[in-house]
Design brief:
The complex is a heterotrimer of chains A (about 120), B (about 250) and C (about 130).
Chain A (H helix, E strand, L loop, with lengths): L8 H32 L10 H9 L1 H28 L6 H25 L2
Helix pairs in contact in A: 1-3, 2-3, 3-4
Chain B lengths: L4 E9 L9 E9 L5 H11 L19 E4 L2 E4 L13 E4 L6 E3 L2 E2 L2 H9 L21 H5 L2 H4 L6 H5 L1 H5 L6 H11 L7 H8 L13 H5 L6 H18 L10
Parallel strand pairs in B: 1-5
Antiparallel strand pairs in B: 1-2, 3-4, 3-5, 6-7
Chain C lengths: L18 H10 L1 H21 L1 H12 L1 H23 L1 H4 L4 E2 L2 E2 L2 H26 L1
Antiparallel strand pairs in C: 1-2
Classes of the chains: A mainly alpha (about 120), B alpha+beta (about 250), C mainly alpha (about 130).
Chain lengths: ~120, ~250, ~130
């Protein structure tokens, strides 16, 4: 009889799902605030992301947690989705595909974690 | 009497004994408004080329035999009418993602193996003897799985699913819908056995959630939902097996 | 001897062959933009940790026209991600049963969109309050 190997996908699939949800709920407004509203001074004061304010935000437990979870989940969500898409366009689910997706997500996670740690509490 | 209408039907032909690869052939078929695409194909076989090969049986969308790519979309040829395509040409091709056996006939053996693998029959939770009588099921319990019993194994969902084509081992939407049908049956106790297949590298996680399978299903089974809900079940099994005394599937 | 010679068709370019697949590839590719934004945020943490000068440099870079255009594209892509994420809910999540009846799929999709807009508005108000 044929034997089946258990897939480890649930780990990555859960991160994909959580990240997709977070990106759907918070992604648009985050991009709008950090990338458009604050830089061009639209609706929000120009100093909304000044150094003292951002430092305070990133040192706050909730602020730091939010930043880390957002970066972590966005990275792993997209890694899993791109990994699937690479397979869709004919790039085998091999070491290269894993390095380009999950590998990048892991590096991003580590850089964000280290720097959020360095920023202090 | 009005003038006889003629439709062009282009069929992807493949005769393994003489053709190196499939080739297109165009037939000019006279038709009436009550003719299905299947009848058009039958007309070609009866009048132009008796070697044209295809599967069909009931002509009323219940046997699931006459699935074909009609203008690139997997459909049952019996329930789609020539008049809806006229005056444009209809292209007919064997179902995608399956090897072509001959003309419009595909090799279904892979599908049959997948179907067997998910054990599409009730594995009794508690076996009963004839003397003990029938298994009692409430309408509410029945409604849990009724939708998934409508599957006619026509494999249109397999032709719609890109992952089936890219990953021929993928269990696929139709078989997963049936797996779900039995898992949800109150009389059944085979979920753990079937989980081995569902949670495997050939199981639900191959799915990329394109959703086209549910779109083309002629019986509104929604196999795509069955696959995706089973991702949740397989993920639960993945993490909770460490807590469960039985240890879940292997 | 068997005369069988099953012919396997190529899958190359499959995603171009049906509008349904094209849309699938488009919404899957929003992941590239989500990844890009994760990287933008990560660079932000690097600059913030490096001190005031570095952070001000980051803010200046975010003000460049190129960055604004880039973020407008990101915004469009991630809004499309949110739109399609909830649109797929009837496919990807178990049916919601209320009072013995299945909830209409359209209702679930619209509910998701409403929640997404609500979260965005509330988040903006909170940020506005903090700023």
């Amino acid at each position: 009889m044929k034997t089946y190997k258990r897939s480890n996908a649930p780990i990555f699939w859960l991160l994909f799902g959580a990240g997709g949800m977070m990106a759907a709920l918070f992604g648009p407004i985050m991009v709008f605030i950090t990338g458009i509203a604050v830089p061009i001074g639209l609706l929000l004061p120009a100093d909304a992301m000044s150094y003292p304010k951002m430092l305070a935000f990133a040192q706050n437990f909730i602020g730091k947690g939010f930043l880390f979870v957002a970066i972590f989940l966005f990275a792993w969500h997209s890694a899993h989705r791109i990994f699937h898409s690479l397979h869709d366009v004919g790039i085998h689910r091999g070491v290269l595909a894993k390095a380009l997706t999950y590998g990048v997500a892991a590096v991003v996670t580590v850089i964000a974690a280290v720097n959020l740690w360095v920023i202090g509490f | 009497m009005s003038e006889q209408k003629i439709i062009e039907i282009e069929i992807l032909r493949y005769l393994p004994e003489s053709d190196q690869e499939p080739r297109s052939e165009i037939y000019k078929v006279p038709f009436t408004d009550d003719m299905s695409v299947l009848q058009g194909v039958q007309y070609i076989k009866d009048n132009f080329d008796g070697s044209l090969t295809f599967r069909w049986s009931c002509r009323m969308a219940i046997c699931g035999s006459c699935g074909m790519m009609i203008n690139g979309i997997p459909k049952l040829a019996c329930e789609n009418f020539i008049r809806d395509y006229y005056p444009k040409r209809i292209t007919v091709e064997a179902l995608n993602n399956f090897p072509i056996e001959k003309d419009l006939v595909v090799d279904l053996s892979g599908f049959i193996e997948k179907l067997e693998a998910i054990q599409p029959y009730i594995i009794p939770k508690e076996p009963r003897t004839v003397e003990q009588g029938e298994y009692i099921q409430t309408p509410a319990q029945f409604s849990e799985y009724i939708q998934f019993t409508s599957c006619i194994n026509c494999t249109l969902c397999y032709a719609a699913c890109p992952q089936v084509g890219l990953d021929p081992d993928f269990i696929g939407p139709g078989a997963m819908a049936l797996l779900y049908r039995y898992n949800r049956d109150s009389r059944d106790g085979g979920e753990a056995q079937r989980m081995e297949v569902a949670a495997s590298t050939e199981g639900v996680f191959v799915c990329g959630a394109t959703g086209y399978c549910s779109e083309v299903c002629p019986k509104k089974v929604d196999p795509g939902n069955a696959v995706n809900v089973n991702k949740i079940n397989a993920a639960k099994d993945y993490f909770l097996r460490f807590l469960s005394p039985k240890g879940g599937a292997k | 001897m068997s005369k069988r010679r099953p012919y396997v068709r190529s899958k190359s370019g499959w995603w171009k062959k049906d509008p349904y697949y094209v849309e699938y590839m488009v919404h899957e590719s929003t992941a590239l933009f989500v990844a890009a934004y994760a990287i933008v945020l990560t660079i932000g943490t690097v600059c913030l940790a490096a001190g005031e000068a570095a952070w001000n440099g980051y803010l200046e870079a975010m003000k460049s026209p190129l960055s604004i255009i880039f973020h407008l594209i990101l915004l469009a892509a991630i809004v499309y991600h949110a739109f399609t994420w909830f649109k797929l809910f009837p496919l990807t999540t178990p049916p919601v049963v209320l009072g013995g009846k299945k909830l209409e799929p359209e209702l679930i999709v619209r509910g998701g969109w409403v929640v997404a807009v609500g979260v965005a508005v509330v988040s903006f108000v909170i940020v506005w309050g903090l700023a």
